[in-house]
Amino acid sequence: MALCSFTIASLPSYEKIGITASIVMIVCRMLQGFSAIGEFVGALIYITETTQAPRSYLYTTLVIFFTNLGSTFALLVGTLFLLTNSEEGWRTAFYFGAGIAVIGSVARTQLRETPDFLQEKNVNPQKKTKLIDLFPSKEIRKNFWCYVGVDCLRPLYFYLTFIYLGGLLTSKYGYTYAQVITQNLFVGGVEALASLFYGWLALKVYPLEILKVRGLIFLCFSLCLPSIMDHAAGPFTIFAIQCGLMILGKGITPAYVLFLQAFPPIGRYTQAAAAHALSRVFTTLVTSFGCVIMAEYLGFEGIMLILISAILIYLISVYHFSLHHKPSENQNIVFVNTNMAARKKYR
Known about the structure:
The protein has helices spanning 2-10, 14-17, 19-50, 55-84, 89-108, 115-123, 141-150, 154-173, 177-201, 207-231, 235-248, 256-260, 268-298, 300-324, 329-346. The protein is mainly alpha-helical. 31% of the residues are buried.
């Protein structure tokens, strides 16, 4: 991540080195995506294996919260550097990011293996992990595809929020790029707060129930969007829609623990990262080509057809997963004890 950020910041323009600039930029962005997936999934698994429910629901959500907060901070950094230098300020922002990535690399050297992983290794200390052990077995393949289905929303609502609606602000309402970034900064802040709220809510409500209700609300919200855009479109309306998409389209949050625990400790990281990556590859391809084509021929309604289809896949995946993963008696006891302790403290 640090190397790619530094390379992008130092990359000569297309006018100077031609198509080489485009190729290097694409390769660096691919490697950054590679790094981000490994970092994100690894952090979630580490928290999952070192904490217990229901607090683990909150703690994994904090990973999402700080990820969102990091995105908001990145927008803030980008805004500040573009204000000081509108032409080359983005390069300084990438140099700044490279420095942060180096700090993160040093922090990783202080981590130890989790108890779950070590316990699994100690059961069969002589057994060597084969490549086939890292891929989903027949028994958990359904869980793998449920993970993919539930995790497929973000690229779509991210595109709709920041790319399509952000472009509408510039083309229809005369926003400058700096103004769009500033508005995105506030939208990113709303998403971070929504993540924190869902983590707190998971201490009181079973996470899969949160996913079901939120998915149904998101479906209703999406069905109403074309009518809202036709009759009440404006900068403030667009901002409200962006916030709504970010609040309702939170994917697996705060149920990451339940989905990750469906994978065995040996191979959990590989399988979860593969599911996360596959969801991103599929929906990013759909976003890059499908949304552009649908927007060209059907307008905003075309994009909504794709988003609604993704929400339906999300809901089917959540309901299918919930059929095989009911809260255990121990989890119910923990929820009761947590709520009783909260009431006692309040009194």
